[in-house]
Amino acid sequence: MQSLKQQWFGNVRGDILAGIVVALALIPEAIAFSIIAGVDPMVGLYASFSIAVIIAFVGGRPGMISAATGAMALVIVDLVADYGLQYLLAATILTGVIQMLFGVFGIAKLMRFIPNAVMIGFVNALAILIFMAQVPHFLGEGTLTYIFIAITLVIVYVVPRYFKAIPAPLIAIVLLTTVAIMMNLEMKTIGDLGAITQSLPSFFIPGVPFNFETLSIIFPYALALALVGLMESLMTAQIVDDMTDTKSNKNMEARAQGIANIVNGFFGGMAGCAMIGQSMINVKSGGRGRLSTLIAGVFLMFLILVLGNVVIDIPMPVLVGIMIMVSIGTFDWGSFKYIVKAPKSDVFVMLATVAVVVYTDNLAIGVVLGVILSSLFFVASISKVRVHQDNGTFIVEGPLFFASTQNFVKTIEEAKTNSVTIDLSSSHLWDESAVGAVVKVVTKLEGQGKTVQVIGMNPASEKLYKQLLGISSAH
Amino acid sequence: MYQHILLAVDGSENAVRAAKEAVKIASNDSLIEMVYVADFDKAKKEMLHAGSTESLLLERKRKVVPVEEVLRAADKHFKLTILHGTPGPEIVKYANENKVDIVVIGSRGLNGLQEMVLGSVSHKVMKRVQCPALIVK
Q1: Which fold has domain B2-136?
Q2: What is the C-alpha to C-alpha distance for residues A238 and A246, in angstroms, rounded to an integer?
Q3: Closest Cβ–Cβ partner in A238, A280, A283 for B53
Q4: Is residue A319 within 8 Å of residue A28, measured between CB atoms?
Q5: Contact map slice: B 88-127 vs A, CB within 8 A
Q6: Which of A120, A244, A280 is facing B48, going by the closest CB pair?
Q7: A residues 40-99 near B, CB within 8 Å?
Q8: What domains, with CATH codes, occur in chain A?
Q9: In A, which residues are within 8 Å of B53 by CB distance?
Q10: Are A112 and B45 inside 8 Å of each other by CB?
Q11: Rg for chain A (alpha carbons), in Å?
């Protein structure tokens, strides 16, 4: 990685401009994600400010943008609905603690266990849930709502073709809010769903009873948040690594996400993580260093302090339109080709992940089940051991371990010749079951009066074999 | 003769045809630099489907192989450079900064539909590079 000075001041001009662009693009998302979670817009705005500012200093991936996100908002919906904001803040702090522990214990290595089928399923499920969260805001809300959503979508997709300096969602907001106010149009606004306070976040301890009951309520949510947050953050870090052709420190980032959520929880923000879309906007706009993330957070807060009383007049349909855009951008449109081309088991894992998430409304459950499913498929696919027989010589191809020994034992036990050679040079003994299987067939064949020879064991297999049989390797 | 030839490569059939033309204008001591631009707009999709940075590198190398074979068969000096950004502007920037002698590029890349709307990468490159450009049909 570059020196700290380079990470902060290596790209000042680009970072400041990109940070401002990101701040403008962040505001509608932070508000919309708050509404998904069922909290006041300030909770998402405070979170976006606190997280971005803290990550700028302690993050492991300079140039990555972290704030309040849709993935995290979707996890906390039930917690907020059942127990309210204070429990959400407590859960946010606990999320941070869990993430820090993951960071300290090197979770980045564990992320490799999440196969891309699950990752693709995750983003698709996320896109579907974000879209579904918008439905109640337009269904049965009248023609005017549909017209505003349609105009918003036209603006966000057409304007960037010709004009890129200001994020198109912001143009849609300014334009359509003005129209709505001037024409005195009757529509739901952000103000109808929550309050905007024009003040900086302040420190306070969440008002929850400090007992085991509280912990048992927030822990499942915190664990799910920690998992979802780290997964999206580390996936985003990989994308930023690739775009900027630089390296990042994944464990440092995991710890940083933890620190950010702890502090954020004490300052009244909802749990957040890195954002793929915003980080890509940042890099595309020229942001590379830590300064871009800091500017994004600070400028966002500045805008809210100055413009807070205007924000409440933004019509909900505009926000819904922007969220539909976010949902379309989140969905992996390469999935359709993937379904046709990828191995059947991978496709099944991807679709199962999506189905479980959409059914349970919980991204974490989908990811965990997806990982379990894909590991089972993996075990099944490598447990196919082939045994070729050639005149008393059995050539074993494929790894021997608990799931693969059955076929091996069955084939060799049926040996007809008096002298049997088992050739393991294309195999590997992985565990007790493997060594046990070899011992078992040798014993059985010898019991039938045959001479048995085992050849070609590789050094690691031989070591395990001797160790498990209690043979000193010194002999 | 052109000493330093920039050959834009994107994994399409056109890039292979461009390579064949690049070979014709290269002398034995010219360097043909294959430039592949990993598109910012595809970063998320590519990373999701590759799963790791290693397999992503493999995926990109695979796109260059057909072109590499043309250059190897012609026994030319060549190297591969992978850039990150938006293909048109990135190729222009690289060509101008490195003062290459000529840019060779296929007329139409992979995404026909986008090009109908946005204009082609080759067109942008031709307009903005400060050296001769050879567009191969």
Answers
A1: Rossmann fold (3.40.50)
A2: 10
A3: A238
A4: yes
A5: 117-118
A6: A120
A7: none
A8: 4-332 (no CATH), 383-469 (3.30.750.24)
A9: 238, 241-242
A10: no
A11: 28
Where along chain B do its domains lie? 2-136
Distances (CA, A) of A441 to A219, A458, A467: 50, 19, 19
Q: How far is B110 from chain A (nearest CA, A)?
A: 15
User: Which residue bears the tokens 């070979």?
Assistant: B23
A65 within 8 A of A52, measured Cβ to Cβ: yes
Do residues A390 and A412 touch, judged by C-beta distance below 8 A? no
Report whether A221 contacts A84 (CB < 8 A). no
Instruction: Report chain B residues whose CB lies below 8 A from the CB of A120.
Output: 48-49
Residue type, A71: A
Contacts of A332 in chain B (CB under 8 A): 44-45, 48-49
Q: What token pair was written down for A315?
A: 């019509």
* Complex ipTM over 0.85: yes
- The verdict on B56 touching A (C-beta cutoff 8 Å) is yes
With tokens 């304007």, the residue in question is A159
pLDDT one digit per residue (tens) for chain A, 475 residues: 678 888 999 899 999 999 999 999 999 999 999 999 999 999 999 999 999 999 999 999 999 999 999 999 999 999 999 999 999 999 999 999 999 999 888 876 777 788 999 999 999 999 999 999 999 999 988 899 999 999 999 999 999 888 888 889 989 999 999 999 999 888 889 888 887 888 889 889 998 999 999 999 999 999 999 999 999 999 999 999 999 999 999 899 999 999 999 999 999 999 999 999 999 999 999 999 999 999 999 999 999 999 888 888 999 999 999 999 999 999 999 999 999 999 999 999 999 999 999 999 999 999 999 999 999 999 888 888 889 888 889 999 999 998 889 889 988 988 888 899 999 999 999 999 999 999 999 999 999 989 999 999 999 999 999 888 888 655 4
- Do residues A354 and A118 touch, judged by C-beta distance below 8 A? no
Q: Among A113, A242, A371, A374, pick the best mutation site for testing chain B contact (most B Cβ within 10 A).
A: A242
Do residue A243 and residue B40 have CB atoms under 8 angstroms apart? yes
Residues 305-334 of A with CB under 8 A from B: 332-334
Q: Considering only residues 2 to 41 of chain B, which have any Cβ-Cβ distance to chain A shorter than 8 Å?
A: 38, 40
